[in-house]
Amino acid sequence: MPNRAKPHVPVAVIGGGQAGLSMSYFLKQAGIDHAVFERRTAMHAWASQRWDSFCLVTPNWQCQLPGLPYDGADPHGFMKRDEILAYLARFKAAVDAPLHEGVAVERVTPREAGGYCLTTSAGDYSAGQVVVAAGGYQTPIIPRAAERLPPGITQVHSEQFRNADALPPGAVLVVGSGQSGAQIAEDLHLAGRQVHLAVGDAPRCARFYRGRDVVAWLADMGYYDMPVTAHPLREGVRDNTNHYVTGRDGGRDIDLRRFALEGMRLYGLLDDIDGTRVSFRPTLAAALDQADKTYNGINAAIDKYIADNAIAAPPASVYEPVWQPGGEPATLDLAAAGITTIIWCIGFMPDFRWLDAPVFNGQGHPKHVRGVTAQDGLYFLGLPWLHTWGSGRFSGIARDAEHLARRIEARAGQAGGARALRLAV
Question: In the chain, what is the straight-line distance between the N-terminal and C-terminal CA atoms, in Å?
Fold first, then answer.
């Protein structure tokens, strides 16, 4: 039988979340043919990895997906899970991307002649350029020590948590206090569960300060426009844990010390597991102090901005701890404490094993400059701090996608010019 040529797409976009569809929006504007490959359904992570009470931690006005900025009646509120899903459904319909749902990209390989070969669950394709918009949160992290827990302990990752009623009766150990861990711990606490929380090194910030949402102050101060190259930590900021705060019930601080006053049990970093006995490092006091230092530091920066610009605002304040740990709990017997469930809230690992290109560092993270790699025609979009704080969020994805669309268009034009020259010769 004769060999059939592989279907060719000038640009292959891998991932059908907000990043991939944002990329499609600008490619369509530029008149560039492309295909978006999504192994499940578009926006599936928002439907499958968020708990029932999930809401945005940034105000609605920061939702600036291309062509569909937030147009609801509560710009200073925080959309709940179902509202977010409805917003994303409208975005998907508005973009009307050339979307291939249910098609998994299993391998991407550069071709010697230029461009890329894509092996997918629906057959092979060739592509002139590739945009990886699959995100950086593919593989849930669960420590190997968890294998030593007895089978009677239910274990779930944060992406699997839905609500307190879906868990077995009993107390719950939440491991990790980043945005997900802190909010899930609060959700269980408000539901009346006895919560034990292994506190990590996540910072925290105020929800409102001096009469406004802290996000609004930071936006005015230019923080969200700061490129990673101007950040004091440079690329190191990509490894930082997000500040914990919540938009629940109109928005409020998350204060772990106050939770402790109300009966939540706090511990340091989880160190090891031996049957039903869990041990912790003596890091609790330092973690709480450092989180409060960050909280007060952000507020102090806002104070300076207000003073420098002679802005009328309510008076400044400094957070004072409402609770101090009486000691550093070293161990916890799960059985004795009545703990029936552990929720792992320690994040995700990237998994780009399907991408056969020399663009990764020793930790498996892609090396790039604003999404552009050293591999000709290969780009990344939607990663945390790809360019700014908002790069992996609704607020900044459009700017990054537009930048990459211009690079893609310029490269396509150069390639077309070279082909025309060869034909003329």
Answer: 35
At 11, list the tokens: 């640009």
Domain spans of the chain?
A: 8-138+350-424, 140-344
Strand partners, 126: 8, 117
CA atoms of 166 and 213, how far apart (whole Å):
33
Structure tokens at 331: 């161990």
Tell me the per-residue pLDDT of 76-106, one tens digit each, with 9 for 90 and over.
Answer: 999 999 999 999 999 999 999 999 999 999 9
Give every CB contact of residue 31 below 8 A, 6+ residues apart in sequence: none
What residues contact residue 421 under an 8 Å CB cut-off, 6+ apart? none
Tokens of 208: 């409102």
What is the CATH superfamily name and number for domain 8-138+350-424?
A: FAD/NAD(P)-binding domain (3.50.50.60)
The values of phi and psi at residue 360, to 5°, are -115, 150
Structure tokens at 285: 């006091």
Q: H/E element holding 398?
A: helix 397-424
Q: How far apart are CA 380 and CA 373, in angstroms?
A: 8
And the tokens for 329?
């709990």
- Tokens 């059908």 belong to 16
CB 62 within 8 A of CB 393: yes
What is the assigned CATH class of domain 140-344? alpha beta
For 106-127, how does the pLDDT look when each residue is reduced to its tens digit (9 = 90+)? Answer: 999 999 999 999 999 999 999 9
| Tokens at 293, concatenated | 């230092």
- From start to end of 281-388, where are the E strands? 331-333, 339-344, 348-349, 378-380
Q: pTM for the complete prediction?
A: 0.94
d(CA 49, CA 51): 7
What is the Cα–Cα distance from 380 to 366, expressed in whole angstroms?
Answer: 8
